[in-house]
Write a structure and sequence with these properties.
2 copies of one chain form a homodimer. Chain A is an alpha+beta fold and 337 residues long. In chain A, the strands form 3 sheets. Chain A has a 5-stranded antiparallel β-sheet with strand order 7-3-10-9-8, sandwiched between helices. In chain A, a hairpin with an 8-residue loop joins strand 1 and strand 2. Chain A binds a DNA duplex (30 and 30 nucleotides) through helix 2 and helix 3.
Amino acid sequence: MLDDRKLAVLRAIIEDYVSTTEPVGSKSLVERHNLDVSPATIRNDMAVLEELGYITQPHTSAGRIPTDKGYRLFVDRLSSVKPLSGAERRAIETFLAGAYELDDVVTRTVRLLAQLTRQVAVVQYPSLRRSSVRHVELVPLAPGRLLLVLITDTGRVEQRGVELPDKIDEDSIAHLRAMLNVCMDGQPLADAASMVVDLPGQLEPGDRPNAAAVLSVLLESLVERHEEKIVFGGAANLATSDFSKGLQDVLEALEEQVVLMRLLGESGDTALLTVKIGAENAVEGLHGASVVSTGYGAGDQVLAKLAVLGPTRMDYPGTMGAVRAVARYVGHILAES
Amino acid sequence: MLDDRKLAVLRAIIEDYVSTTEPVGSKSLVERHNLDVSPATIRNDMAVLEELGYITQPHTSAGRIPTDKGYRLFVDRLSSVKPLSGAERRAIETFLAGAYELDDVVTRTVRLLAQLTRQVAVVQYPSLRRSSVRHVELVPLAPGRLLLVLITDTGRVEQRGVELPDKIDEDSIAHLRAMLNVCMDGQPLADAASMVVDLPGQLEPGDRPNAAAVLSVLLESLVERHEEKIVFGGAANLATSDFSKGLQDVLEALEEQVVLMRLLGESGDTALLTVKIGAENAVEGLHGASVVSTGYGAGDQVLAKLAVLGPTRMDYPGTMGAVRAVARYVGHILAES
DNA sequence: AATTGGCACTCGGGTTAAACGAGTGCCAGG
DNA sequence: CCTGGCACTCGTTTAACCCGAGTGCCAATT
């Protein structure tokens, strides 16, 4: 059904369409790629490809353009991830070189990815689950209010205000702080729940409600909420890449944290490059867009996701190459610091 | 030269143009607003207004549209800030109610402003200059690396990695930490420089290079860099408000931190509502846009700026009302926490 | 069975021409 | 100073038209 030449034709159609944005006809195909057959033959092949749903024509008397299914086949079987050029690799290094803080790393990664691919970049903050506790600090703000500061072994700091049910005095704070640090120091945050389960027993009964409030904030807010932090950049690139329709929709989707979560979550927990094409994206209003995503982290742990979003008509090999390279490099940086 | 009726005509033209997006002619003017004169009279007035540069016609045989100068006059003399409706005020409260952390406050403010005005919102993080030090924490990360954590009396936490010139042991860290806290606790950050000037003298000579590194980071990075943090949102609104040209340009400008700084910086240190119309904006590629900005902060201190950006053809009274109201409300929240 | 050249057909895009109409400027009269 | 009248301008819309890229099909060839 699909012999080699037909596949070659599909590949050629996609390459041409991606670079010209215009439907591609049988004649220009044989010219630009040296297929040693006549346009008529290509037409027959194209008819078959259309029959099978890999390409379609916008209207009669126009050339063919790839369908989502066509891109899917292309990505799965007809292309390979394109390694970056030396210049691009150097760009990555210089771009990310001066980033010490996590905020900095994430921000720069977004800009870098957007610039490299000329599309929209989406980056999720690394999860805290695999980090360990280095220090817990409690700072009184007001009679019924504490500030909880968590410092991890990866040098990250998270803070959060805590509303206390009762008033609390300096001594109790100090005691609670000491207890917390004894219990949790060096422990992975993923185990935090079990670490502190018997903590209230070691405190004065009167302090227990307050301690409970602190713990619940620590467990729920700090660790979980953090993963919801996702930033994007390169929206300006949307304006040029004449998104057939619904630039509006795309921008709205990007500004919804929940949508971004869903977008990155879809690809599961894998660290592998994942490509979602057009309607494969569950998110309404993001059909017409493709998302290339991957996990990243220090070593082989997947701490978060990053992705590039663009029109279905995108340079998949190049984009995949950029995403993979950036993910790896960011992984190194996280591992070092 | 400019009698009352001519001013009324200008106001009417602006109101109509803002709501319809279309050049407005003499006839529809007398209909929609009950000016008790004939279209011909209005035409004469319009001729004068055009002569003076307040309005212009896109082409012969079309109605008039306001010029930047026309909007300027409108804002300065023909309109007043429109107070928010009850529903809008309630929206502000519910929207900002659950925000405890600063991050949260800023993020929500951006979304709120964008939604309220249906335009792009820009919010700068509050300056740390007026805050006081509550606690300084030093955490060893690696032999030559420290994490510096600063906690302010307003419950804000800033962290930053510090590269040390020499190795440092636990005791020296503890000593340095103690010294820092003694010197700085309760002191306003604005005075931080003078507070620590004699600190190195109280340390072992061997520790002085390390201490200097820590101090420079504390002074330069934490306090100053923080003010550069500016976020924006509501880009989706740009898509609808058919920015005559250069949506591309606007998006690019918004993604440049430097540009945003300049945008907010222009209006000086005032807490007052400031309106920059079209070409009044120094930023290239943001002609065609207007910016309504104001300072905000706890009490009467101006800690940062926030702004709304939209096409010159915007609802100035409404936008100004929203900006002022939100700024005030955010101020209250900052003052409480 | 696959390939090829030939040929009629389709249809979107671009061009030209004409009719339309909103809006203007000007003027003469109230 | 205001008003009604009127000629004029010019962008927009509509219609008719042609052009050409591209297709599908078929019969002939390999």
